[in-house]
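Q: Hi! First time asking for a complex rather than a single chain. Here are the components, and I think there are two in total. Is that enough to go on?
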Amino acid sequence: MNPLKVEKVVKQYGDKTAVNGISFEVSEGEIYGLLGANGAGKTTTMRMVLGLIYPDDGQILYHGKAYSNDQLRNLGYLPEERGLYQKVRVSDQLIYLAQLRGMSKKDADASLKRWLERFEVPEYYNKKVEELSKGNQQKIQFIAGVIHSPKIVILDEAFSGLDPVNVELLKTTVKELRDSGTSILFSTHRMEHVEELCRNITILHRSNVVLKGNIKEIKKQFPKERVILSTENEVKGLDRIGGVTNVIRHEYGYELGIANEAVGGHILRLAMEQSAITRFEIKEPTLNEIFIKTVGGDSHE
Amino acid sequence: MNSFWTVVGFTVRNKLKGKAFLITTIIIALIMSTGINLPYIFSQFGSGDKVTNIGYIESQQAELAPGTATGDQLKAFFEAQENPSLKLLPYEDKGSAAENEMQLKQAITDKDIKGYLDFGKMTESGFPEMTYKSEKLMEFEMTSSLQGALQMIRQGTILQDAGLTEEQMALLNAPIDIDTVQISATEGAGNIGEGKSPEEQAVNMGLIYFIIILLFMAVMISGQMIASEITAEKSSRVMEILITSVSPLKQMFGKIFGMFVVVVLQIAIYVVVIIANISMPHNNKALGDLNIDLSQIDSALLAYSVLFFLTGFFLFATLFAAVGSLVSRTEDLGQAVMPITILSLAGFYISIFSIGSPDSMLVKVSSFIPFFSPFVMMLRLGLADPPVWQVLTSIGILLVFIYAAVWVSAKIYRTGVLMYGKRPSWKELRKAMKAYKV
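A: Yes, that's all I need. Here is the structure of the assembled complex.
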């Protein structure tokens, strides 16, 4: 029985359909990616999972059970827009939030200290949130979502506004959570994070599910149509090979569009005749490309 | 229930820790202490009320004789008084006007006199021209007391000229004496007739004023605080975490109850400050002089005060919470709470302005209207004598209304906290309630 199961969930605001029949399951120790342009229905879906709003149709099951107030303790939430009391000490408000989720004050305190230690910022314990930088507020916000060791964690745009070092730190932490058996529902605009973290994804577009499934399988559905070629000397006549759709010259070499994988061989042969080759790769499509292809470049931002 | 108290605890702790709370409490306590001690402070200054010396020349010259006579008359008049504020000092005539002036100015420099009167020609008023010369500007008090004195002197002279006897003169002056005695008599008269004695009435009136103002302040201050905290939680999106941790109802009432604890605490501090100030020896005497005895407070009235205070507070607080939950940005809050503010203002003003006529129809009717009754019924209880059934009916209506307000507020809150963007209209709110299935 999966910790989180969303079945054909529909939500309407008046005449507007916000989410139209989304279904997915998140198993234990899995990070599930929820992708989509702004306004596609991600936040509404997450809010329904959190029990903030009720679906008009379909159902959401937590370990096979319907939503109830008891589920609150099993849920952790990192909202897209950061929300903390600016003028309250980190310790006060995080212990408060943990207590609201049923932890004892002592456990909450210990857990908070452990997390601050984990993020290498134990000195923030007594600081007010407004004194912290945006990135550090983000860390505190993250702790607020996971301090009570929830079974299901919902991360909405978890890594936005962080510097690369902190993104790595948080990413490692999310992976640790996953490995410890937490089910994570994850939304972001950064496709490289999804590729790194998620096993399964759902792409929403204008309230509808347009693509769903295992990332590897999704990628197989999209043909490999990029070749990266780096050579010592110039290679001529690449654009005359049949099946080559376009040639872009980069500093590092060439990027070619191909009609099918077999064309790659012709390119390699032609290049070998003219120069030594430092790099040759037939790339599988990136999630970014798939995303833009499915939802259309216009609505992506 | 557990998380309810967690919310209460957090609300109270945060308010008490905040600098704003500490500073306002201290400032208001200071203002109160100053206010209570003001009469004493004034009396301290007042007793130092020195006699002002005014000089004049006892001229030997014939044409200035009326001036000298007037000066002497004034001197005699003020000397005859019990607590004269002025004293006239005659100075010898040195012969010439310039030398006299020199002499008087020297006296001012020596601080023997504050100023002096310069007499001129005789006028129709029966007195010579007079100029008061001093180093200070705007000596209105001085001139008016001189004027008063001269009036009295002239009256006396004319009456004497009219050939009235001493008895007749005394008779003419007599009513004034009786007047003053009457004024002082009202306060010392003790119990007159039945019902509340004047002292009790005074004490009750004071208590009513106090309770009404207290309720109004508590409603306004804490109401605003509740609404703005909820809006702040909403706009900072802490709400999204809170609402996924604890049910909205517990959250809302935790906040209201927490704020109530804070307000009660604040009031308790003020009451302690007031009592401490009043029971200081010098103020105790002042109160005694005014015949105010705090032990004369009616205990039933006190009980009703507490009851109406509680009901009034919770009625307004729940509404403020509901409105706070509808607004996404603190900037819009002032406008949104306006209707509630006006309701509480109306109740407050009806009772304050009706304090002289606690039996009017307006008061009777509005003492049954939920938003006004906490203020207005208090007024009737303290100053009129409303039948018990009316008081109970009023409380009953109030309780039913609070129940309804809580029900509606809870629904609005549950819906409102998730609605961002512009303030929703009633229609949008109803639609959202339906959509959220609350």
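A: The two ends of chain A are 37 Å apart (CA to CA). Let me know if you'd like any chain examined more closely.
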